[in-house]
Amino acid sequence: MSAPSGPPWWRGYFDDAYFLLHDPLFPEEMSRVEVAAMREMLGLPDGARILDAPSGWGRHTLLFEEAGHHAVGADLSPALLARGKAAAAAGGGRYRAAAADIRALPFRDGAFDAVVNVFTSLGLFLSDDEDVRALREAFRVLRPGGKLLLESMHRDDVVAQYAERDAWVLPDGTQVRARRRFDPVTGISHEVLRWRRGEERGEKRHALRLRTATEIDGLLRRAGFTPIEYYGDWDGSRLERDSPRLVVVAARP
Predict the structure, then answer these.
(1) pLDDT tens across 15-29, in order?
(2) Which of 12, 45, 88, 226 has its CA 20 to 30 A from that of 164?
(3) Helix, strand, coil share of the chain (percent; to 5)
């Protein structure tokens, strides 16, 4: 399935406004739980070389580095990369990151022991072929025996309780409203976010390709990964129809 024509929605979406709307949703405690789970699922030894792609503002990259790994981030957003650099400087940590498209990574073959791709990032391109390109790049930069950890919303669970309207208030008082529409043929969820912070108002629109485990399994095998393991949450529980998320660990033979 091909992506729609026109500029991709994600090209300018991940800016400072995105950060301000999403950073409060991911407290440090949550990020630490996720990193601990990823280290366990991947079986990472001390000093493992990890690529976090896309890395956003480095909430996982920085914690992998803190845990004693050689962590590198890759992301297309200058705004989010700058946020990660600022966070590292404020905390006295080290932040290594490259401005890069995950479909064309600027790293040598076999450079990493593990690659992580989380927060339904594989769904941004809306295209099987483009997502396979990204997976083949992850495969390429992994050493033989290295592993990819992929985390995504679980389509089976999302569709069962799909919320066409939602609203929440951030800690700083920002009011956020969401309207969504799901296309069951393409598997794409379209969302409009509108927010208000005092006199400031804004709007963002995005689309995500939500996939079943069957679909993701097919993409991973097209990219060359095997064996592949599936989990239903960060606690390592078995993937079920109503699991809240889909976590996959796939190896490069």
Answers:
(1) 999 999 999 999 999
(2) 12
(3) 30, 30, 40
C-alpha distances in angstroms, 2 versus 7, 100, 130, 133?
14, 22, 9, 13
Q: For residues 144 and 21, give the distance between their C-alpha atoms in angstroms, rounded to a whole number.
A: 39
Q: How confident is the model at residue 241 (pLDDT cuts 50, 70, 90)?
A: very high
Domain covering 9-154+212-251, topology: Rossmann fold (3.40.50)
pTM attached to this predicted model? 0.94
The residues spanned by each domain of the chain are 9-154+212-251, 159-205
d(CA 158, CA 56): 23
- Cis before 253 (ω within 30): no
Q: 203 - beta bridge partners?
A: 194
Kind and range of the H or E run holding 79: helix 78-91
